[in-house]
Amino acid sequence: MTKSELIARLAEKNPHLYQRDVERIVTTIFEEIANALSRGDRVELRGFGAFSVKSRDPRQGRNPRTGEQVSVDAKAVPFFKTGKQLRELLNADE
User: Fold this and answer.
1) What does the mean pLDDT of the chain come to?
2) What does pTM read for this prediction?
3) How does DSSP classify residue 7?
4) Does the pLDDT at position 94 exceed 70?
5) Is residue 83 within 8 Å of residue 47, measured between CB atoms?
6) Hey, how many other C-beta atoms are within 10 angstroms of the C-beta on 8?
7) What is the average per-residue pLDDT within 56-76?
8) Which of 2, 13, 63, 83 is the most buried (most CB within 10 A)?
9) What is the Cα gyration radius of the chain?
10) Of 37, 44, 41, which is closest to residue 77 (Cα–Cα)?
11) Residue 12: partners with Cβ closer than 8 Å, 6 or more residues away
């Protein structure tokens, strides 16, 4: 599902809201999650999952085209861990 599909579906389920308002709400939620992660905070949505930031240490990598060793700097990467309810929903048919 893309962001525009999410906005369209939410607008469809909430006919009392204008689509531009739904778009503003969705954009604000995504911005707040991104801002929290950039501050190093953890974002937890009960039943859905938790977003956090993990640090990757610097390392030696390889250029896949030439095979030459290259230095890869340390970096922060987003991490998502699913919540219990979401895992149960995804595995309900097993």
Assistant:
1) 94
2) 0.77
3) H
4) no
5) yes
6) 15
7) 94
8) 83
9) 19
10) 37
11) none
Cβ-based neighbour number of residue 84 at 10 Å? 11
Per-residue pLDDT reduced to its tens digit, 32-49: 999 999 999 999 999 999
Contacts with 78 (C-beta within 8 Å, 6 or more apart), sequence order:
37, 51, 52, 53
Cα–Cα distances (Å) from 13 to 19, 46, 47, in that order, read 11, 22, 21
- The helix/strand/coil state of 64 is coil
Instruction: Report the distance separating Cα 68 and Cα 62, nearest Å.
Output: 6
Q: Which helix (H) or strand (E) holds 45?
A: strand 43-45
Share of the chain above pLDDT 90, in %: 97
Q: For residue 77, how far is the Cα from the chain centroid?
A: 11
Task: Work out the angle between the directed axes of helices 3-13 and 19-38 (0-180°, nearest 10).
Answer: 130
pLDDT band for position 93 (cuts 50, 70, 90): confident
